[in-house]
C-alpha cells in the first residue's frame, strides 16, 4: 500500500469510524483506507451493501481488522438494533465508494438497506466519496442528491477525472485515497484553527548560479507539509508556499490546501510578503537558503570558460520569518524553526530562545540536523520548543505528523 500523509500519527488512537462500502469497482480500494485507519489505531466498523458483496467479500474487511462487519439488515445472527449501532459509537461515518443508488437513499432519507438505515440514525460527521460512470455523475438527478447532502452538512469528497473502468472518460472515479483518508481525519480533529488563514512555508529553496545549476539543501519538505496538513485537519484555510520538494516524489497536500510552488528564496519571500497581510498565522518551516550565489549568466556555464576553476560571490537573502514577524499585526501568530548542529538536545533550548526573541516569533522549534533521525528527509523529528511566554520543553523523537500536531496545539493557544 502506498503511504498516506499522517499515517504514522498517534493522535487518533481510540477514535471510531464507521465505513460504508457500496457496489462499485472502486470498492476494493476501501480495503487500503481501512488498513490506513487501523494503522492509526482507529477502531473501524464496516457495512458492505449487498451489491458491494458481489465485488468483495466481507471476509476481506474482517481480516483487515474491521469489527463488526455488517452484511444485511436481516441477517439471522444480527442484533435487532444493529442499524443503530454506528450512530451510538462512531465519531465519523464515511461511505467510500458511494454508489448513485446509496447517494439517492441518503439524500431522500430512505432506510431500505442496512447502510442507509445506519446513515439515517447517525448524527455525526458524514463523509461521502462517490464513484460512478461519468455520465451517471453528470446526471441532474445525481447532482441534485449531492447538493441536498452537501446542504445538510455532509462532506462530499468529489470524484476525480480520468478513464472509468467501462472506458468512458470524465469525472466519476473515486477520489484519491489520501483525500478521503484526510477528510475523515479532519472530521476526527479538534477545530481549534477553524476559519483561520494559515501561511506555511515548506521545503528547500534553489538558488541558481547559471541557467541550469543551483545551490540548495536536502530538505524533503515533510515537516512543512505535515504542518500544512495538520493546520488543514484542525480547520484552518491553508496556503502552502512550497520550495521544489519533488526530489523524493511529490509530497501530498489535499486539494483544499492552496499550493504555490516557488524556487528561490527571493521568490518565496516575494510570495510570502504578498500573502501575509491576509493571514492569521505564519508557520515558517522552509529551509530557506541564507545566501544566494551571484548568477553568472542564463546559459550553461562551460568547463572551457574557466578551466582553472572559478569563484562565486554569495549575497544574503532576506529572512522571510524575521521580516514578516517584525511587520505583523498583533493578532497574527508566528511559528518558526531553527536547524542547528549541536551534540545535545539541551544545547538547543538557549539557541531556540535567542532565535525566538530575535525573530519575534510566538513559538520556535529547534532541531538537530546532525541527528539523522531528526534532520532533513527523516520521517521523525525531535525538537526543543520555546514560546514567547517562557514555556520551554524538549520533546522525544516522534513522527513529523505528531510534532506538527503538538506545535499546532502550542500555536493555537496564542
Ligand atoms: O536563522 P535561521 O535560518 O536558523 O532561521 C530558521 C527559521 O527562519 C526557519 O523557520 C526558516 O523557515 C526561517 N527562515 C526564513 N527565511 C530565511 C531564512 C530562514 O524564513 N531566509
Automatic annotation (TrEMBL):
<dbReference type="InterPro" id="IPR007085">
    <property type="entry name" value="DNA/pantothenate-metab_flavo_C"/>
</dbReference>
<keyword id="KW-0456">Lyase</keyword>
<protein>
    <recommendedName>
        <fullName>Coenzyme A biosynthesis bifunctional protein CoaBC</fullName>
        <ecNumber>4.1.1.36</ecNumber>
        <ecNumber>6.3.2.5</ecNumber>
    </recommendedName>
</protein>
<dbReference type="GO" id="GO:0071513">
    <property type="term" value="C:phosphopantothenoylcysteine decarboxylase complex"/>
</dbReference>
<comment type="function">
    <text>Catalyzes two steps in the biosynthesis of coenzyme A. In the first step cysteine is conjugated to 4'-phosphopantothenate to form 4-phosphopantothenoylcysteine, in the latter compound is decarboxylated to form 4'-phosphopantotheine.</text>
</comment>
<keyword id="KW-0479">Metal-binding</keyword>
<dbReference type="GO" id="GO:0004632">
    <property type="term" value="F:phosphopantothenate--cysteine ligase activity"/>
</dbReference>
<feature type="binding site">
    <location>
        <position position="359"/>
    </location>
    <ligand>
        <name>CTP</name>
    </ligand>
</feature>
<dbReference type="Pfam" id="PF02441">
    <property type="entry name" value="Flavoprotein"/>
</dbReference>
<dbReference type="Pfam" id="PF04127">
    <property type="entry name" value="DFP"/>
</dbReference>
<comment type="similarity">
    <text>In the C-terminal section; belongs to the PPC synthetase family.</text>
</comment>
<dbReference type="InterPro" id="IPR003382">
    <property type="entry name" value="Flavoprotein"/>
</dbReference>
<dbReference type="GO" id="GO:0015941">
    <property type="term" value="P:pantothenate catabolic process"/>
</dbReference>
<comment type="pathway">
    <text>Cofactor biosynthesis; coenzyme A biosynthesis; CoA from (R)-pantothenate: step 2/5.</text>
</comment>
<feature type="active site" description="Proton donor">
    <location>
        <position position="166"/>
    </location>
</feature>
<keyword id="KW-0288">FMN</keyword>
<comment type="pathway">
    <text>Cofactor biosynthesis; coenzyme A biosynthesis; CoA from (R)-pantothenate: step 3/5.</text>
</comment>
<keyword id="KW-0511">Multifunctional enzyme</keyword>
<feature type="region of interest" description="Phosphopantothenate--cysteine ligase">
    <location>
        <begin position="198"/>
        <end position="414"/>
    </location>
</feature>
<feature type="binding site">
    <location>
        <position position="355"/>
    </location>
    <ligand>
        <name>CTP</name>
    </ligand>
</feature>
<dbReference type="GO" id="GO:0004633">
    <property type="term" value="F:phosphopantothenoylcysteine decarboxylase activity"/>
</dbReference>
<feature type="domain" description="DNA/pantothenate metabolism flavoprotein C-terminal">
    <location>
        <begin position="193"/>
        <end position="412"/>
    </location>
</feature>
<feature type="binding site">
    <location>
        <begin position="318"/>
        <end position="321"/>
    </location>
    <ligand>
        <name>CTP</name>
    </ligand>
</feature>
<keyword id="KW-0210">Decarboxylase</keyword>
<feature type="binding site">
    <location>
        <position position="300"/>
    </location>
    <ligand>
        <name>CTP</name>
    </ligand>
</feature>
<keyword id="KW-0436">Ligase</keyword>
<dbReference type="GO" id="GO:0015937">
    <property type="term" value="P:coenzyme A biosynthetic process"/>
</dbReference>
<feature type="binding site">
    <location>
        <position position="337"/>
    </location>
    <ligand>
        <name>CTP</name>
    </ligand>
</feature>
<comment type="function">
    <text>Catalyzes two sequential steps in the biosynthesis of coenzyme A. In the first step cysteine is conjugated to 4'-phosphopantothenate to form 4-phosphopantothenoylcysteine. In the second step the latter compound is decarboxylated to form 4'-phosphopantotheine.</text>
</comment>
<keyword id="KW-0285">Flavoprotein</keyword>
<feature type="binding site">
    <location>
        <position position="290"/>
    </location>
    <ligand>
        <name>CTP</name>
    </ligand>
</feature>
<feature type="domain" description="Flavoprotein">
    <location>
        <begin position="15"/>
        <end position="187"/>
    </location>
</feature>
<dbReference type="InterPro" id="IPR035929">
    <property type="entry name" value="CoaB-like_sf"/>
</dbReference>
<feature type="region of interest" description="Phosphopantothenoylcysteine decarboxylase">
    <location>
        <begin position="1"/>
        <end position="197"/>
    </location>
</feature>
<comment type="similarity">
    <text>In the N-terminal section; belongs to the HFCD (homo-oligomeric flavin containing Cys decarboxylase) superfamily.</text>
</comment>
<dbReference type="InterPro" id="IPR005252">
    <property type="entry name" value="CoaBC"/>
</dbReference>
<dbReference type="InterPro" id="IPR036551">
    <property type="entry name" value="Flavin_trans-like"/>
</dbReference>
<dbReference type="GO" id="GO:0046872">
    <property type="term" value="F:metal ion binding"/>
</dbReference>
<dbReference type="GO" id="GO:0010181">
    <property type="term" value="F:FMN binding"/>
</dbReference>
<keyword id="KW-0460">Magnesium</keyword>
